[in-house]
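User: quick one, fold this
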Amino acid sequence: MRFNLGEVVMKLNKLKIALIGAVMFPLSAVVVAEESPSDFSVSGNVGLYSDYIFRGYTQTKNDPALQGGFDVEHNSGLYAGVWASNVNWTTEGGYMDDNSMEIDGYFGFAGGIGETGIGYDIGILKFYYPGENTTDGAGGADTDATEFYAGVSKDIGIFSAGVTWYRVISDDAWGFADAKGSNYLTLDVDMPIGETPMTASVHVGRQTFDGAGNDPYDYTDWKVNLEYALNDTFAIGGFYTDTNQSTSDWTVKNVYLGDGTGGVYLSAGF
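Assistant:
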């Protein structure tokens, strides 16, 4: 058998090229995968507040609240999240026998309108209070609530302004029977304070309730907030909030839930 050195060398070179390609191809795929941005992003938040205020009313009877949540967002604009806080209005008001927590779940879609600089956000928000409802309170009406929301926002000079509309789509809401169709409309404006890491915010909201006998509970709330960013993660702040509602309509165990009150907080975003 004749031995052709040139043919052997050529075959060895071909084998070497094939082996290098076999090794380099998955490595290059890994590099590409590492460099490609993910379609999803995850963020979280946690905060310690001297009082949990929701639409002008304390949810903890002026006691501290620990709150936190997570959000998952797709680069298409779709998002979903969950958020939780301690509460006590449900048991103190006689609506539930054993509840100390609020858990909110939500999903929606956010984006922008062409080159207008106007942003939009639409979604569904569920308020869940674990435990059994009692037959006291508002006649045994469910404390859980579900809302549809839609909002628009725009930066105007140094201001960031947004208007959001919430509409109850569940039969009951927060102990109000037959509250489907109730509305909450908000105006929120943020403004940085010069070149400092401080931001001032102003909020005004109008809550109206549907359902027989619920009209007296309609009200307007407002809030001012000042926040100082300690760094990219932590912030401290203070706020003052009040409503125009009468004490007789929103008093639980001699505590007026809608009374003007101030508070402070420490929050973190990650």
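User: anything notable?
Assistant: The chain has two domains: 1-36, 39-269.
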